[in-house]
Amino acid sequence: MVTLQEVAETRTVRAAARRTTGRSRPRVAWWQPLVVLAVLVGIWYAAAAYYDHVRGLAFLVPYPHLVAKAIVAPTMPDGSPSTFGTDLWSALGRTTVVSLVGLAFAIVIGVVWAMAMAQAKWLERSLYPYAVVLQCVPILALVPLIGALFGYEFASRVIVTVMIALFPMVSNTLFGLQSADRAQRELFRLQRSSRFAQLVKLQFPAALPSIFVGLRTSAGLSVIGAIVGDQFFQRGNPGLGVLIQVTASRLMGPELYATIIIASLYGVAVFLVFGLLGRLAVGRWHDFS
């Protein structure tokens, strides 16, 4: 029979091991990513010079300073002010709304789905294959159906975002719920606790690190989903996805690269924000890196 003292000793040993691991982990110096960035920018300049002077296709790989100018102070070829800056930040705002709404739905659906599967093995065997199918099905194959059912505007873009961001929430939450300490689960059974009490007081708190890992991954995928949704459903004020298509079709090299960079930076920012939230929420008890 498992006693409360044994459970407490197990928790103490694991906490000490996590602290030791955290102290021994090597830290990355702040200048190392900057060195890599400088090397990449140098390669970019070399490629831009090659496409400009050798191939005569400067729009394919524009110079980095022209891309930076397109972001900060865009101008027309004749030097007059351009409206690209306004279009860029407006599109970013619309993409942000779609990605966050889709992420919110993915979180709720994923957590509820995983909680249902964690209640019994037969539920997991019945429901988990559909999560895998949803992850593997090509979005392009569902575009006509989604458009016919929900239109070609905001709702369809959100649905695509949910489909792309959902699976990490389902799989990570399920893993966390099933990873609750066996000794503690036996203790709950000995005390004849209800299944709901075991879920709320034991499994869900134990699953929080895994949930935040899935949330961080899904947050990055939600940005991809919002941009992919723009590619397919272009009515009703779409975002960065359509702006990428427009700048590419008009051979606006600096503006195209500027849009891609802003979309990438937004995805990285969302990933880092939710990673920080995970460290603040469970970093004191779990190794969340």
From TrEMBL:
Parts of the chain that traverse the membrane: 28-51, 97-116, 128-152, 158-178, 199-228, 256-277
Alphabetically ordered keywords of this record: Cell membrane, Membrane, Transmembrane, Transmembrane helix, Transport
Keyword Transmembrane helix: yes
PROSITE patterns: ABC_TM1
Xref: SUPFAM superfamilies: MetI-like
Cellular localization per UniProt: Cell membrane
Gene3D superfamilies: MetI-like
Membrane topology: Multi-pass membrane protein
Chain ranges of the ABC transmembrane type-1 domain: 92-278
Domain of life from the UniProt record: Bacteria
Protein family membership: Belongs to the binding-protein-dependent transport system permease family.
Name under which the protein is recorded: ABC transporter permease
